[in-house]
């Protein structure tokens, strides 16, 4: 069964956007790295909720 921590981690990962930009000008390299947290869409959260509910409602495997 998935743990609550695993589900929370999945939601956090789905909300993370990473942006990397590298520029070269006059022989110099400029590097920009951004990590932005964006809200997941309601539709995505509902799909995740349904998937977790299906996983938790399965009978234990033997």
Describe this structure in words.
- With about 60 residues, this protein is α+β, with helices and mostly antiparallel strands.
- It contains 2 helices and 2 strands; from the N terminus they run H-E-E-H.
- The protein has helices at about 5-15, 40-55, and strands at about 15-25, 30-35.
- A two-stranded antiparallel sheet has the order 1-2.
- Strand 1 and strand 2 form a beta hairpin.
- The longest helix has 16 residues, at about 40-55.
- The radius of gyration is 19 Å and the shape is elongated.
What descriptive keywords fit this protein?
single chain, 62 residues, alpha+beta, two-stranded antiparallel ribbon, 2 helices, elongated
What's the gist of this structure?
The protein is an alpha+beta fold. The protein has helices at 4-14, 42-57; strands at residues 16-25, 28-37. It has two helices and two strands.
Structural class: alpha+beta
Oligomer: single chain
Unreliable parts: none
Lateral arrangement of strands in the main beta sheet: 1-2
Helix content: 40-55%
Helix count from the secondary structure assignment: 2
- Mean pLDDT equals 79
First and last CA, distance: 13 Å
Q: What composes the largest sheet?
A: 2 strands, antiparallel
SSE sequence, one letter per element:
HEEH
Radius of gyration equals: 19 Å
User: Can you count the beta strands?
Assistant: 2
Strand content: 25-35%
Envelope shape: elongated
């Amino acid at each position: 069964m998935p743990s609550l921590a695993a589900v929370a981690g999945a939601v956090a990962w789905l909300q993370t956007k990473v942006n990397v930009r590298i520029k070269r000008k006059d022989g110099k390299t400029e590097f920009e790295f951004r990590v932005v947290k964006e809200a997941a869409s309601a539709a995505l959260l509902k799909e995740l909720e349904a998937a977790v509910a299906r996983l938790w409602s399965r009978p234990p495997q033997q």
